[in-house]
Amino acid sequence: MSFIEFKNVCKMYPGSKVNTVDNFNLNIEEKEFIAFVGPSGCGKSTTLRMMAGFEEITGGELYIDGKKVNDVAPRDRGIAMVFQNYALYPHMTVEKNIGYGLKNMKMPAEEIKKKVDWAIHILGLEEYRYRKPKNLSGGQRQRVALGRAIVKNQKLFLMDEPLSNLDAKLRVSMRTEISKLHRELGATTVYVTHDQVEAMTMADRIVIMKDGIVQQVGKPMELYDHPVNQFVAGFIGSPQMNFFDVDVNGNNVRFADGSNITLSAATAEKLKGHQGMMTLGIRGEDIKVIGPDRKADADTENVLTAVITDTEVMGNENNLYFSFGGCQAVARVSKYEIAQIGDRISFTFVPSKLHFFDKDTGINFMEME
Length: 369
Ligand SMILES: Nc1ncnc2c1ncn2[C@@H]1O[C@H](COP(=O)(O)OP(=O)(O)OP(=O)(O)O)[C@@H](O)[C@H]1O
Ligand SMILES: [Mg+2]
Fold this sequence. Notes:
single chain, alpha+beta, Rossmann fold, CATH 2.40.50.140, 2 domains, 6-stranded mixed β-sheet, 9 helices, globular, binds magnesium ion
């Protein structure tokens, strides 16, 4: 049995006629770091709160460590949680806030001090040790909330957007800190975030949700390279995957502006007979811009052209925006391949990186069993 098992877990809020979380099925192994991602309102926090016991499970079963916990009180679930809207005790200093839970657990004062010192150090809160929450910034408060959870030494951490109030730099360093902490403590962690970069960099596996329904569960690169549908393809990756309306006939792919490419036999076979209007998807880094001297590795048969409408110089790489096939597209190129607005570029799509999505269901034909 897995450490955590969701079996058709549902949540219907009072007064609602539909499930906010619908038939959620997932097994989580001990020590795994799982990220829940998805757009605002898709049910991430609700799912986490059902795990913590703060929200009633209205359908299905949830098991933690082999025990059905549907009716188990939060304090008996062996969980430490960092909430999206964490509430600190306003009259207590940072160190008191962090140690309060331990005091409640009747831990000896000396041990509490050791743990609080450790958390304060890890979270860089030394300067603020004796301050009260009202005199802290949002990011500092968030770190105190994190401290309160990590000192508890529980087997399961639930974190709901714990870094959302931090500035970009602190966010990146806290990301590394949480990953390190996870390796050291080995506690199973479920981490909710909007931020797909956080999910990609921290998680062993990612759960992508939309409208209360799990879309795909997988390792970060599985989701990136093999999205099962257009929603997952568009959600993971920045800039977003390019999508084009195309008409597929045999090996021929026709774009809305009349441009054509020919599919290799291998790619055409992966389409499994699907024909007609569909959506072609390709990531920016899989669009190869061809210099005037035509690089040898280019697929010379399927060269397309477009005019650059915008550029983003990122430092380490460049994003080249252009209109093609009736859609806006972006190619990610190396920092050495800068083009100017108005330049006409030639490019090819890396044949093995093409995705084809059903127009109605969004299913990725290339990833069907
Ligand atoms: N107590 C409640 N009663 C009724 N509806 C609720 C309640 N709490 C949340 N909801 C609704 O359930 C849906 C899912 O909310 P939830 O907080 O789980 O989303 P989320 O994925 O965490 O979003 P965000 O990224 O914005 O935090 C939302 O449409 C929300 O309005
Ligand atoms: Mg939320």
